[in-house]
Amino acid sequence: MGSTDDQYRKFANLTFDDFRRMAQDESLSSYEKTGSPDSYRKGKEEFTFQSILSNLPLLNEQGKTVLEVGPGCSDLPRMVINLCRERHHKLLLVDSEEMLANLPDENFIQKFPAYFPQCEPLFRDFAGKVQIMIAYSVLHYVFVEGNVWDFLDRSLELLAEGGEMLIGDIPNVSKRRRFFSSLRGVKFHQQFMNTQDLPEVQFNRLERHKIDDSVILGLMMRARNQGFDAYVLPQPPDLPMANRREDVLIRRP
Ligand SMILES: C[S@@+](CC[C@H](N)C(=O)[O-])C[C@H]1O[C@@H](n2cnc3c(N)ncnc32)[C@H](O)[C@@H]1O
Question: Is pLDDT at 8 greater than 70 in this prediction?
């Protein structure tokens, strides 16, 4: 068994088909099926859920249409499901058939087995009608194997007036570099890795397949240019990756 970082690396660079396969692997925990070592998620998803709730205040209202893209199958989507039941929201879920099969079927839930946005039934029935959209810890996979611009543009097509969308838990390599070149970042690395070595940080270097500030800010600009408000939000410090990840909130005025 290696360090937590080694365990995390085991889950790096996953494709939609990898998740599909992992969703059916009974030797994996529900956290591992969704691409995280237990140490990063077990007992911590309540903090993530609270952060999602505070960023999407419409979730606390009643009778909305909520879409979650890439819910996975750990505790987090079950918290979303419980909230939607309590608040009488309609819940639309888009993920692979295999992943969705791990989540309960209830009358307020509509499952769309698909690779978003390649999901015409969803667009046919819900364009302009989704009041709350969540895509948590999904964008970096789309960045590698899909098209983040299409992901964004088509998401915006779904949002109702006043609707809000959280693209959460985006690993930003620029933020990571800033952190690990700070004194606090160096101390964090040394404690976490139990070493006196300095973390390796290189500026002015393109890291293939990694989201950086240019992508985050580009997404915001693109949403704003289409008439939406868009903001970058820090994660609360109790989230396990808050020092290198951030969230994007988009609102249709
Ligand atoms: C890292 S998991 C995150 C799960 C959950 N949102 C969470 O934070 O616990 C990524 C999930 O997104 C799904 N996924 C990746 N790309 C997707 C896409 N384009 N459309 C729908 N689901 C996608 C994967 O199958 C997987 O369930």
Answer: no
Asked whether residue 186 falls in the same domain as residue 111, the answer is no
Nearest CA residue ID for atom 4, ligand 1: 72
Which residues form the domain of 141?
Answer: 4-171+211-251
**Do 162 and 184 reside in the same domain of the chain?**
no
Number of domains in the chain: 2
DSSP state of 45: H
Q: Nearest C-alpha to atom 13 of ligand 1 is from which residue?
A: 70
Atom of ligand 1 nearest to the CA of 99: 27
pLDDT in tens, 204-247: 988 999 999 999 999 999 999 999 999 999 999 999 899 999 99
List all residues whose CB is within 6 A of at least one atom of ligand 1: 16, 19, 34-35, 69-72, 74, 76, 94-96, 99, 115-116, 136-138, 141-142, 146
Kindly tell me the burial class for residue 111, based on how many C-beta atoms sit within 10 Å of its own C-beta (0-12, 13-18, 19 or more).
middle
